[in-house]
Amino acid sequence: MELVWATPDFTILGQSYPGFPILLWPSMESCIPANRFMRAYLQRGAIRSKRSWPSVGRALYDFFGFLEAHELRWDRARPSEESGLVAAYRDYCLDRIGLDRNTVRQRLLYVCKFYEYALDQRWIDRLPFGTEERAARRKGAFLAHLDASGGKVPARDVMPKKRRDLPKYLSKDEIKALLAASAGNPHHRMMLRFGLQTGLRLSLIHI
Q1: Are residues 126 and 177 in the same domain?
Q2: What per-residue string of b and e applies to 114-144 under the rule 16 or more CB within 10 Å gives b?
Q3: Please, which residues have CB within 8 angstroms of residue 157's CB and are 6 or more apart in sequence?
Q4: 33 lies in a domain?
Q5: Domain range spanning residue 199?
Q6: Rounded to whole angstroms, how far apart are CA atoms 193 and 175?
Q7: CA atoms in the 13 A half-sphere facing the CB of 67
Q8: How far is residue 107 CA from its own chain's centroid?
């Protein structure tokens, strides 16, 4: 599989979309199912930020690459494998590759969305995963005492449980080394000190 990013020449209904993810088969032909899904999903009104594009593109690229490496078809798995196709990808990411649990959750979200879109388009007859009830945290929710769901919400059964990671901070030695490296540029040093002392996220610091 190949993942490429569109140039300004790529247009949809006359509108240019530079940087849009495009998935190609090894033959360099368009992976039509994945590309049609990405167009539908990423052009929704709820998604206005282009920051979502790389995540969705890489998730589909990684999943289809997994299928290609294991000689599996996304739409026509053998009956014994059909229900476990997405679960096998999940376990591969967690156990073989050792990806972070929340990274795997994000990728699986887009893979599941792709299959739900495929079902709506009638490309497949059933989803390769099921649903189950899971406990939901609603502490302090307004009118929680009237909630008849018993604190349960439906969830895709292939999704690993969400884990809340503790925030990561630089050590004192790392901060000293970072500031020392910027000593020759007052502008860089000022921006670094501002970011460190105000707790800015990395994506908001443009040096």
Answers
A1: no
A2: bbbbbeeeeebeebbbeeeeeeeeeeeeeee
A3: 129, 130, 131, 132
A4: yes
A5: 172-204
A6: 9
A7: 22
A8: 4
Is residue 137 assigned to a domain?
no
186-198 and 172-181 helices, crossing angle to 10°: 160
Q: What is the residue whose two structure tokens read 């990561």?
A: 168
List per-residue pLDDT tens for the chain, 207 residues long. 999 999 999 988 888 999 999 999 999 999 999 999 999 998 876 666 788 899 999 999 999 999 999 998 898 755 555 568 899 999 999 999 999 888 999 999 999 999 999 999 999 988 888 878 777 665 555 555 555 555 677 788 888 877 666 667 778 888 888 888 887 888 888 888 888 777 776 655 444
